[in-house]
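lol forgot to send this yesterday, sorry. struct tokens for the thing we talked abt
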């Protein structure tokens, strides 16, 4: 049984190796074809007159730059679209801030001062106390109200 298992594993590895080798051979063949095409194009340009070689080189550079330009235009369009989206979001958030500030202006100043004092007191309590909190039974409604607010 052990030898059969090893044989099966060896056959699987051999099959995988053969598949990998085949894929690599196909890749090499494709690269050879591409290289031959490039060599033929190069030989054709060498047969051209110097002026024609320059013109051919310029045409290839123009093609490359045109493709690059199209890619950059596409990127620019995406960025402009994103900018518009972010501006809309900014307007929404600015409106929310203005609404919040307007609602805060209507809250009486005394209440705001009381809220600030409560926040400071809570912060001090958090810093000063650790563990269980001891309180009188009659202070329970006040503690619950302060915890909720």
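and heres what i got for the seq, position by position
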């Amino acid at each position: 049984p052990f030898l059969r298992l090893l044989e099966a594993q060896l056959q699987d590895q051999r099959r995988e190796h053969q598949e990998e080798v085949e894929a690599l051979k196909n890749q090499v063949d494709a690269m050879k074809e591409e290289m031959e095409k490039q060599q033929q194009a190069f030989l054709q340009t060498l047969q051209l007159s110097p002026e024609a070689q320059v013109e051919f080189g310029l045409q290839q550079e123009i093609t490359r730059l045109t493709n690059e330009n199209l890619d950059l235009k596409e990127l620019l369009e995406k960025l402009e679209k994103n900018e518009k989206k972010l501006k809309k979001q900014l307007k929404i958030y600015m409106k929310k801030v203005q609404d919040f500030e307007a609602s805060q202006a209507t809250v009486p100043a005394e209440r705001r001062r009381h809220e600030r004092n409560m926040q400071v007191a809570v912060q001090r309590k958090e810093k000063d106390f650790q563990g269980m909190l001891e309180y009188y039974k009659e202070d329970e409604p006040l503690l619950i109200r302060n915890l909720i607010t």
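The mean pLDDT is 84. anyway ping me if u want another try
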